[in-house]
Amino acid sequence: MKICRFMILVFTAYALTILNAKTDSKKQEVESLDSKTTACHTEPLGEVSKTLESKKDISCLLTQYDKNLDSNSTQNTETRQNNNTNKEETHEYPLLDKKSKDELFGTINTAEIPDAIPAPLTTKALLSVEDWRDTYFIYLYNFTPMENPRHIPNELKGQISFRVPLSRNIFKSGGILYFAFTDTFFFQVFNEKASSPVRDNDFQPEFLFTYPMNVVFWGGTLTELTTGWRHISNGEINIEHGGAADRSRGSDRWIFKARWTTKHWGVDMEAFAPVRFYPENPFIYKYLGSLEIKIFMRYNKHLADATITGLLRYFQPGKKIDSLHGGLRLSYTYKLNPYYGVYMQYFVGYGDYLYEYDKIGHRIGIGVRFVR
């Protein structure tokens, strides 16, 4: 019994100690609330402590706390925006505007999303496929006689062209290294008597360096400069090397290209310099020339192009200047949707495809073009 009484006394003492501690904690909370309510009321501190338990005073404290949070959040947002603006202004490529920089480096619009940070360029964005020299398939009719009497004048002409960025901001220059490829073919699909052959096929791989620009003049903008190596071949082998006919053609040139655009119009200007001379076609550069100009229009669903080739005569030191041989290609596209449209093409002149570089061609076609 004595042990039980002793345990009851110990337990009672312990309970009183805990109760006193809780009472002291409540007093400290009341004193803290008394000091905070002075910001919401002009009453003396004693008056406020008497009515501290009222809902009005607690609501006032919560309102003041919310205002402080909103103020801190606004200051943090403004700080982030200022930091993003300062980074943009001090970018090391001043010729590019913000939209061009975002497209080049794969970032998101940090001005519209204050809390956003630049997103890293993913492998998918790095290897994105871009349209290059038009991709289309058309029914084609040839007005000029065919090279082979077994060929018929109506056929299918197709072109597949694309470029892929291999490296963006290469060597921290702001430029983009591209690999491009174009395949142009003439398919005698309606010539069943000759087993519907592909009569010609031009392969054109390119390695290009493009630097995005933003230089305004003459009411438009110089948007890019491009230079690089271009090879074109029809994949044939001459008789002396085991081929069936003397049809091998090839060309290697270094190109320089500039693009100038307005809202609806633009001009592509390409200059060429020979890199290698092939014995199968030693005079090819006399016909290809040294300059090509493409004028294009983009207005709503209408796309139109006019390309003039062979504008400058090819010149070799110590030799006579060659006569001018060129060609004219006109094309028009009516977009049916964002992905493809009805396409028409007309060509007259030299060099519509590689084997015909020294022969005049005259043809017209209609079909489908893929657009992006």
UniProtKB/TrEMBL annotation:
<keyword id="KW-0472">Membrane</keyword>
<dbReference type="GO" id="GO:0008970">
    <property type="term" value="F:phospholipase A1 activity"/>
</dbReference>
<keyword id="KW-0442">Lipid degradation</keyword>
<comment type="subunit">
    <text>Homodimer; dimerization is reversible, and the dimeric form is the active one.</text>
</comment>
<dbReference type="InterPro" id="IPR003187">
    <property type="entry name" value="PLipase_A1"/>
</dbReference>
<keyword id="KW-0479">Metal-binding</keyword>
<feature type="binding site" description="in dimeric form">
    <location>
        <position position="195"/>
    </location>
    <ligand>
        <name>Ca(2+)</name>
    </ligand>
</feature>
<keyword id="KW-0378">Hydrolase</keyword>
<dbReference type="GO" id="GO:0004623">
    <property type="term" value="F:phospholipase A2 activity"/>
</dbReference>
<feature type="binding site" description="in dimeric form">
    <location>
        <position position="248"/>
    </location>
    <ligand>
        <name>Ca(2+)</name>
    </ligand>
</feature>
<keyword id="KW-1134">Transmembrane beta strand</keyword>
<keyword id="KW-0732">Signal</keyword>
<protein>
    <recommendedName>
        <fullName>Phosphatidylcholine 1-acylhydrolase</fullName>
        <ecNumber>3.1.1.32</ecNumber>
        <ecNumber>3.1.1.4</ecNumber>
    </recommendedName>
</protein>
<dbReference type="Pfam" id="PF02253">
    <property type="entry name" value="PLA1"/>
</dbReference>
<keyword id="KW-0106">Calcium</keyword>
<dbReference type="InterPro" id="IPR036541">
    <property type="entry name" value="PLipase_A1_sf"/>
</dbReference>
<feature type="active site" description="Nucleophile">
    <location>
        <position position="233"/>
    </location>
</feature>
<feature type="compositionally biased region" description="Low complexity">
    <location>
        <begin position="71"/>
        <end position="85"/>
    </location>
</feature>
<dbReference type="GO" id="GO:0016042">
    <property type="term" value="P:lipid catabolic process"/>
</dbReference>
<keyword id="KW-0812">Transmembrane</keyword>
<feature type="active site" description="Proton acceptor">
    <location>
        <position position="231"/>
    </location>
</feature>
<keyword id="KW-0443">Lipid metabolism</keyword>
<dbReference type="GO" id="GO:0046872">
    <property type="term" value="F:metal ion binding"/>
</dbReference>
<comment type="similarity">
    <text>Belongs to the phospholipase A1 family.</text>
</comment>
<dbReference type="GO" id="GO:0009279">
    <property type="term" value="C:cell outer membrane"/>
</dbReference>
<feature type="region of interest" description="Disordered">
    <location>
        <begin position="70"/>
        <end position="91"/>
    </location>
</feature>
<keyword id="KW-0998">Cell outer membrane</keyword>
